[in-house]
Putative ABC transport system ATP-binding protein
Amino acid sequence: MTSADVLVDARDAARTYGRGPTAVVAVHGATFQVRAGDRTAVVGPSGSGKSTLLHLLAGLERPSGGRVSWPGLDTPSAESAPIHQIGVVFQGPSLIPALDVVENTALPLVLAGVPEGQAQRRAQASLHDLGIAGLARRLPEELSGGQAQRVAIARVLTQSPRLVLADEPSGHLDRATADHVIDVLISAVDMLGAALVVTTHDHAVARRLAIRREMHEGRLIAPHGTQGPQS
């Protein structure tokens, strides 16, 4: 394995909120690697630190201790996350209410400086690839929970990232809708050829992915699945 195979490398990464006796440790010294092509689930109950860990891997939060780096991705510096190469599917509603589906899907490209017409064409293509082109002109308030999550996945697909991080993407959905959203997510990642990390409290979702890590009270437990212990 070369360093280019390791897309994100967390070494003893910790995250503490607050100071003194009221400080809350959300993540205790997590060591975690994501390699090209990985399909990883991080399983644990609500409040176990899964979302915080995902935010550290995405570079959305800085560790209070240890480090997170992205050796296999193009970064402006060792301390900066390559946000253009990481796609995040957030837990819960993440669409802008005033924008329709195609505008929401195109938004990250527009913010990155892609001309609006080109961004919308790429967004339309992603919606078509995921079988939801018919939703293009609907507003978020007109979508079901499952439809909104599929649009969030289409938005990630439009960015063509090399690493996709999904935070409880099926957490608020019924079983049938959850299964469909996970199908869509895995298909989208396969189309991209990207690595995938999903946080979930649902063991049925976790079993869909080859590598499983458990998290309890902010601590990662030894991995299960096709990959041996990470160094």
Notes: The first strand starts at residue 6 and ends at 17. DSSP finds six helices and nine strands in the chain. The chain has one domain: 3-225.
